[in-house]
């Protein structure tokens, strides 16, 4: 057996447009697991802003308050952080970008969302420019593939990530649901759970999601149900719809064993 990797996925209802309070919430959730070995922290898409009615709030990459705060958190907790998504401004273009930060507070990977949500009334494509590169990060514990939200619907993206060596794949998201009826899971919640399990199993990787929950702005509800799923399609940890973090230890020797015995990463 290999060394266990401690993974923490944070889920919460955002304060709409209040960056500082949302950053404090992330710090609080990580701090609740201070007695655990944490090698990787994941936070949701749009985690500092929610989805404001007046549009996305960009930050210049070179002067990003959010990115600097997350770098300091990585150093404070001596962990790697995949910091959800930040609306990155470069020249006159905006990108929905996730950054991977190592324990020293250095950015070691940056992924710009490829598949923008432009369907069923979604208008992300009207202000956001789509990315054009897959990204894997060689962290100090293994190889992490980066994705965001609506990417989860596109299995060929994940096939490319495992071909590039991904052993863990992360998917911060702001998956939206309609109002719930009778307290039961809606189709949209069942959908994100199904996608998460499928992507873990078909690619033989650990697949981790971090979702917004509650009211996330613009009249939308976050799906919640963040999860950590094994390559055997086991749900190792799962949140409900409340503010909470979930934790699990994972063993990458399982992924490496599967790669030798059932090399799906070689299959087109």
Q: What is this structure's SSE topology?
A:
Layout: E1 4-11, H1 19-31, E2 40-43, E3 59-60, H2 65-77, E4 80-83, E5 86-90, E6 93-101, E7 107-112, H3 124-127, E8 136-138, E9 143-146, H4 155-163, E10 168-173, E11 176-177, H5 187-203, E12 206-211, E13 213-217, E14 220-223, E15 227-229, E16 235-238, E17 244-251, H6 252-261
Parallel strand pairs: 1-2, 2-4, 3-5, 9-10, 10-12
Antiparallel strand pairs: 1-17, 4-6, 5-6, 6-7, 8-9, 11-14, 12-15, 13-14, 15-16
Helix pairs in contact: 1-2
Structure description:
- The chain has helices spanning 19-31, 65-77, 124-127, 155-163, 187-203, 252-261, and strands spanning 4-11, 40-43, 59-60, 80-83, 86-90, 93-101, 107-112, 136-138, 143-146, 168-173, 176-177, 206-211, 213-217, 220-223, 227-229, 235-238, 244-251.
- It is α/β, with parallel strands linked by helices.
- Strand 6 and strand 7 form a beta hairpin.
- It is globular.
- The model has no long low-confidence stretch (mean pLDDT 92).
Structural features:
8-stranded mixed β-sheet; alpha/beta; 31% strand; 25% helix; Nitrilase/N-carbamoyl-D-aminoacid amidohydrolase; 268 residues
Q: Quick gist of this model?
A:
The protein is α/β, with parallel strands linked by helices. It has helices at 19-31, 65-77, 124-127, 155-163, 187-203, 252-261; strands at 4-11, 40-43, 59-60, 80-83, 86-90, 93-101, 107-112, 136-138, 143-146, 168-173, 176-177, 206-211, 213-217, 220-223, 227-229, 235-238, 244-251.
